[in-house]
Recover the amino acids of this structure.
């Protein structure tokens, strides 16, 4: 095993924080609450779907509707829990006055950030793994194939890493856990639900304008998704499970989102599915957040060693 890979796996912070997180009563309580919410959603959705079952539907359509509902709820819960478990990773060490001890130790800033990110996201992955039996019950009704299930889980995992990394960066920037958590929740809402809502409204406005312009020549073509929609994991999840707002988006549209450029996105380069653009955006978000956190810790490490020397 290469030495670099061994250092990534045998990170002491992963062992310490991972064990301390699951040894308390809060971890099983959160898992139980998480499964209870998903189970209640499945029961209520299935009850409503069966009570309003249409003759043309069949159980496959019911299974699809139930799966879409619990997948969206699970994504919402992950976005809700991620700032709570990651926003205090570094600021909590600072409040306990143990951050300087880590900085003057043999651990590098990269190892500290990596260990904190892994322990934060690992708890979210534990929640996703615990919910697999809940999703398995829906497969008895059919309506969702295995590929859609895998892609929906991939979008959720990417969102967990994206929100977790941004929350970790917020924990490095701000000294207080409360401030870090509030900022992390604000960014999470803006980058997930906010982009979805604003992008949907802007897409409909563009569609209505094209409808007015093409009213005399025939029905307008389906609207292209606004670039803001490509940033939202909720839009990526919806495009996978319902083929809505779907269509394929080009590399030009993806770069348009990443650069936050104004105007209409250029349809240049090979085309991607919306969920692929969403996953790409989350990976870029992870890279930028981890890089920023490492640079901030590196500068603080120098000052901590000067004080200790």
């Amino acid at each position: 095993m290469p030495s670099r890979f061994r250092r990534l796996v045998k990170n002491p912070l992963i062992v310490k924080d991972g064990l301390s997180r699951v040894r308390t009563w809060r971890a099983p309580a959160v898992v139980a609450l998480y499964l209870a919410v998903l189970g209640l959603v499945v029961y209520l959705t299935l009850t409503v779907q069966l009570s309003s079952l249409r003759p043309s539907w069949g159980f496959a359509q019911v299974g699809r509707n139930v799966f879409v509902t619990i997948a969206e709820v699970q994504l919402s819960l992950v976005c809700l829990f991620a700032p709570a478990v990651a926003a205090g990773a570094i600021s909590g060490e600072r409040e306990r006055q143990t951050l300087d001890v880590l900085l003057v130790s043999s651990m590098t800033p990269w190892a500290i950030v990596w260990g904190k990110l892994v322990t934060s996201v690992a708890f979210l992955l534990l929640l996703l793994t615990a919910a697999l039996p809940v999703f398995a019950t829906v497969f008895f009704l059919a309506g969702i194939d295995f590929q859609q299930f895998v892609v929906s889980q991939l979008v959720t995992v990417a969102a967990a890493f994206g929100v977790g990394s941004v929350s970790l960066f917020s924990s490095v920037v701000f000294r207080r856990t409360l401030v870090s958590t509030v900022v992390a929740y604000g960014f999470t809402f803006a980058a997930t639900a906010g982009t979805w809502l604003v992008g949907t409204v802007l897409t409909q406005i563009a569609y209505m304008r094209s409808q007015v312009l093409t009213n005399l020549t025939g029905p307008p073509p389906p609207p292209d998704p606004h670039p803001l929609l490509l940033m939202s994991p909720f839009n990526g999840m919806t495009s996978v499970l319902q083929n809505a707002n779907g269509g394929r988006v080009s590399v030009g549209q993806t770069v348009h989102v990443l650069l936050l450029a104004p105007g209409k996105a250029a349809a240049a380069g090979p085309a991607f599915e919306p969920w692929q653009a969403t996953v790409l955006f989350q990976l870029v978000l992870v890279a930028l957040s981890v890089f920023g956190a490492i640079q901030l810790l590196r500068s603080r490490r120098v000052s901590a060693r000067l004080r200790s020397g």
The two ends are 36 Å apart (CA to CA). The chain has a mean pLDDT of 77. Residues 3-308 form one domain. The longest strand covers residues 249-250.
